[in-house]
Design a protein that fits this description.
Reverse transcriptase/retrotransposon-derived protein RNase H-like domain-containing protein, flat, alpha/beta, 8 strands, 6 helices, Rev_trsase/Diguanyl_cyclase, DNA/RNA_pol_sf, 2 domains, RT_RNaseH_2, three-stranded antiparallel beta sheet, five-stranded mixed beta sheet, Alpha-Beta Plaits
Length: 193
């Protein structure tokens, strides 16, 4: 029987990740599989590629915007047409992972700052992982500042939320500048950078 206890090792592969003293990295075997993936020829193969990348999306900054041309091809009723934009998106997603990204470890006692920025297509923030998702059709109608606040919601611990939206500066005293009530349970403070 193989022991699961490993002492004094410099790195360890666990569940598709490599744990090192520097931080957490994607497993090179998974990255190699993604880098060798040929251009998808149909929706099913594209969904498979996106699913594999989804497992490692915490290593991909701005993943929602980066993958938008590919996700557009998977929508119901969309005609399959592989464009230059789709090819650029496909190659960029592969290149980010091949670049050996490394994430820092989260420190429970340390102050936590969530920095959020959004676009009309997606939102994201960076803490100890890149977090990104596409917006629902309803969320795409939110104002810029509401999308950035949506990106700041972190459950279970107190954090400071910072957004880049200039409206925070010009609406001093309004509901845009103060912390929204819906974020009160999650944020110790709100500000802008």
């Amino acid at each position: 029987m193989k022991s699961s206890l490993h002492l004094r090792c410099k790195c360890k592969r666990i569940l598709g990740h490599v744990i090192t003293a520097e931080g957490i990295k994607p497993d090179p075997k998974k990255v190699e599989a993604i880098s060798k993936t040929p251009r998808p020829e149909n929706v099913q193969l594209l969904r498979s590629f996106l699913g594999t990348c989804g497992f490692l999306m915490k290593f991909i900054p701005n993943c929602a915007n980066l993958s938008e041309p590919l996700r557009k091809l998977t929508r119901k009723g969309q005609v399959w047409e592989w464009t230059n934009e789709a090819e650029s998106s496909f190659q960029a997603m592969k290149e980010v992972l091949v670049g050996e990204p490394c994430l820092a470890y989260f420190k429970l006692g340390a102050p936590t700052v969530v920095i959020s920025d959004s676009s009309p297509l997606g939102l994201g923030n960076k803490s100890v992982a890149y977090v990104s998702r596409s917006l629902t059709p309803t969320e795409r109608r939110y104002s810029q500042i509401e999308c950035e606040a949506l990106g700041c919601v972190c459950y279970g611990f107190c954090s400071t939320c910072e957004c880049a939206h200039p409206q925070q500066r010009s609406h001093s005293g309004s509901h845009y500048y103060s912390r929204p009530e819906s974020l009160s349970d999650f944020c110790c403070g709100c500000g802008h950078f």
